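P.,

For your records, the input lines for the assembly:
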Amino acid sequence: MNIDRLLKQVEKPIRYTGEEINMCKKCLDDIRFRYCFCFPDVYEIGMSHLGLRILYDLYNRRDDTYCERAFAPWVDMEEHIRKNNVPLFSLETKTPLNKFDMIGFTLQYEMSFTNILNMLELGNVPLLAKDRKEEDPFVMAGGPCAYNSEPIVDFFDFIVLGEGEELNMEVTDEWIKWKESGEPRVKYLERIAQIEGVYVPSFYDVSYNEDGTIKSIETNNENAKPILTKRIIKDLDKVTYPEKWIVPYLSVVHDRPMLEIFRGCIRGCRFCQAGFLYRPVREKTVEVLEENAKKLIENTGYEEIALSSLSTSDYRQFHKLADDLICEFKPKNVNLSLPSLRIDSVNLKLLEEVNNVRKSGLTFAPEAGTQRLRDVINKGITEEDILNGCRLAFKSGWNNVKLYFMIGLPTETYNDLQGIVDLANKIVDVYYEIPKAERAKGLVVTVSTSTFVPKPFTPFQWFPQDDLETINAKQEYLKTHLTNRAVKYNWHDSKTSTMEAVLAKGDRRLNKVLLRAHELGCKFDSWGEFFDYDKWLQAFSDCNLDPFFYSRRKIDLEESLPWEHINIMVSKEFFKKEYNNAINEKVTQNCRAKCAGCGAAKFGCGVCYEK
Amino acid sequence: MIYRMKFEKRDEVKYIGHLDTMRTFTRCIKKTSLPIKFSTGFNPRVQLAFALPLAVGVTSECEFFDLELNGDLDCQVVIDELNKAFPSGFKVLTCEKMEHAKGLMSLVKEATYEITIALSSDANNEEIVQKINDRFSSDEIVTEKQGKNNQIENVDIKPLIIECNVTSPKYNTVIVSVHCLAGSAKNLNPNLIVNAIKSVLTEDEVDDYNIHRKDLMIN
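Structure tokens returned:
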């Protein structure tokens, strides 16, 4: 089939053509292992993902391995490839997915799960791992949602837990050895089940109590580890970082190279899964980062480079790094992008310097409207911080402030919602306190709320999520109370968050729901125009399962959780302590101020051992 | 000094739109060691001007861009530097330097397009050549054009065509070569030529159409 003919009929054909600057090309004769990195969303989103960049580079540095890419085809392309019986193919060599030795999906967000099933089907790969035969590829997954992958495990041969720099290479080495041995498929899984961080779901049996809770999770294969521990890289300076950064032809969501400055976060906000999954904090040194940055710009010609981490200002040598990079790049007309920066006078000056004249909006994420609720969620930002930051910003000519909040947080009352309204109004007051001559015209304060989704591996994993009526009523309250002319209110669709919570905390019984949702046509669920709540409810009812058993139930602290066999090196005891601290509105200090004893120190590296 | 480059855009990059091509060139130029002359102002830019934008999906062996560099350089050095940085599919063919240059866009007057029609296996070549010849030799070639707000308009493209040649060099292939007006004043979009051809052929007769810009005359 002539792919070119299909491309003429679709919107944005360059989503499927590859051939970008720095795309890796290899002679297939020299390759022993062919891998396809699959991102279950469109090209523009997938190419904005740092993990793809790191793994693509890592595999392709090996002479014996060729890593290619595939993305979810947009609906127009899907229609054409189905109609013409063209299997979903990789960008690099246009190879169908089922012809690879292994394909790997990244589980970045729960609402991309149905796209994974769709991509497997389009790539002619049997959906269920148990149906795959000797000639089929192995299908693996990693990423943040891999820590509770139970709702989607039936579709994967194995899951990798944690950072991939070493782990993915070990799994690759083992595949090459296994291939040489000529052993049957299951032997490969037995080999890798012995590697720390590799989870082979079919080697575990889950049983349930009559009330639907987990009774036990037991291994059924002697090679499987009863408890699976995530893998991390102890010294980030010692692993490679992508220098041949692919430059997409099309504007992607995040269209600039990312310089990863550290992994993890010292803050410990109690709702934030990333803050616990990636512990402990490990920084790269300024010297290595500057070298990486220089290469990235040399090899791409990009006009901007971004620092990447969960909290930029927590990098200990942040100011030295920023100054050095500005010094290096300013003469070359390369901008420095500084996301998630705490706003104080020094940082504001820095932002002014890197932004030239553009005063794009300043963003604050108080997450909750009152100090009481911010203490519950352990968000270490005070009203004074925000108001001072805004005052400084307004004086320097900013007139656009964005505020992010969550609604439905544990213990939230209407008092806390009123707090959101009050805070927005106080920011407006701060603006008008500044003499007219000293401030920019046309203040806009944007308040955005998302719906709280309790996630596994957080102190809030035991809390229920608000039901739809409650969330809608809260949104309604904000709509009617945020009446100041300078304040704009945006809210997220609460139905998507509702389903996200179910999948986030789900167990193995959800695999059949996922399959049913796929059969009913669910895909691109993170896209408002495609998400179909009623189809999801139907999928649950067809499988005789109550979705809200998973998300709207207050889970007992002693109950076994579906992810009980996964160890992220932050102890359950710590989460319980934090759960109680939350209820008691007690703040826990950040990792650098005082160790809270979460357990991550057992890795023997990072912030736990900083002098 | 202004360097006027002629380049080709082949199959592997033909779906890159005009704006994306400009952005890609800017980045590639920044990757080279050439002495770039940036524009002045708050947002300094590489000074790059293109001739006539090429429609998405069209290949070309005759595209132009002007690039401003500091100093008098050997043209071959400029070509080599750019080709080292360009992704495969784009290639600079020639380079000419000049002190002053009139805007490239205003210099474009005529173009030649080659439309290659891949016929389905049971189509009759001669019959198809005849049908297309008849279509293009009539006094009017009224064809559908997608106008503003996605409305279909009928336009006569005959006045824009200087010469048209239909040949069948090999089995199952027909090539329509059209020499036409091009540029900012009067311009024929090659997709309209394809529309005109489509109107006399049935869907079962054709597998695929490919458009190639063979020549772009600037003076």
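Two observations worth noting. The domain at 236-601 of chain A is CATH 3.80.30.20 (pyruvate-formate lyase- activating enzyme). The mean pLDDT of chain A is 95.

Regards
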